[in-house]
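Quick one - inputs below.
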Amino acid sequence: MSPIREDLRNAQAHDPAARNAFETFLVASGLHAVWWHRWHHWLWNHRFKLVARVGSQMMRFWTGIEIHPGATIGRRFFIDHGMGVVIGETAEIGDDVMMYHGVTLGGRSLQHTKRHPTVRDGVTIGAGAKVIGPIVIGERSVIGANAVVVKDVPADSVAVGIPATLTPRKKITGSSPAARKKATRATDPGVDVAWTDPAVFI
Ligand SMILES: CC(C)(COP(=O)(O)OP(=O)(O)OC[C@H]1O[C@@H](n2cnc3c(N)ncnc32)[C@H](O)[C@@H]1OP(=O)(O)O)[C@@H](O)C(=O)NCCC(=O)NCCS
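Output:
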C-alpha cells in the first residue's frame, strides 16, 4: 500500500468525522503537514537545510503545524485538527502515533544535543499536552489532554496532569462486545488497539 493511501486509511480509522478518503485527502491538514515534512526531512538530510526550513515554515503558515525538518517521524502518524502543534528538531516519533491540536514536543535545554522527546510506537497524545525534554514515552502510552510531561513514561501508561502523574493502562482480557465497547470508549485515542487485539489496554 502506498504511504499516502496508508495514511488516509489510518486517518479515517481515527477520525470519526472523516467521511471518505477523497475528503480526508483534501481537508486533513495534519496529513498535509506530515506529507510535506517527509520531503522537508529528505532535504534536511541532504544538506538543503535552508530550503527545508523555509518549506517547513510555509507548511506552518498553511496548516498551523510546525514540524522541524530534522524531526524523525515513523509511519501512519496522524495529527487530528493540528493547529498549534510544534515538533522540535531532535524529536523522534515511532509508528502509529496519534496526536491532537496544541501538542508540543519541545526542548528544555539550549544545547545543540538531543533535547526533544522520543515517542515510541502506538502512543496517543491528547489535545494541548506539552511533552518536553529528551524523555521517552513508552509504547502504547496515552498522554491526557493538557498534561505536562517532563519525565519518562513507561510503556502502557496513562499520564495526566501538571506535572503528569502516571498510572498503568488497565488490561481487558477477552474480546466480548462489551469489553470492546468499554475499551473503545475509554481509549478513544487508541481505538485501533481495542478493535484488533482481544487483550486491550485502556
Ligand atoms: C487521559 C485520558 C486518555 C483518560 O481516559 P480514560 O481512561 O477514559 O479515563 P476516564 O475518562 O475514565 O478518567 C479517569 C480519571 O482521570 C481524570 N482525567 C481524565 N482525563 C484527564 C486529563 N486530561 N487530565 C486530568 N485528569 C483527567 C478523570 O476526571 C477521571 O478522574 P476520577 O477518577 O477522579 O473521576 C483522556 O481523558 C484524555 O485526556 N484523552 C485525550 C482526548 C483528546 O485530547 N481529545 C481531543 C479531541 S479533539
